[in-house]
Amino acid sequence: MPRSRRLAPDVVRARLTVASDRLNAAGDTDLAEAIDAVLAPRGWELLRKPVNPTTAEPNMALWMNKAIKDAIYARAQAAGENLAEVVEEGFRKFLAGEFVPEKPVRSARGSDTAKDNLNVRPSKALRDRVQERCPQVSEELGWEVTPGRVAMSWLYSEYGITDDDQRGVTTPALLDSAD
Question: pLDDT for 26-37, tens place per residue?
Answer without folding.
Answer: 988 888 888 888
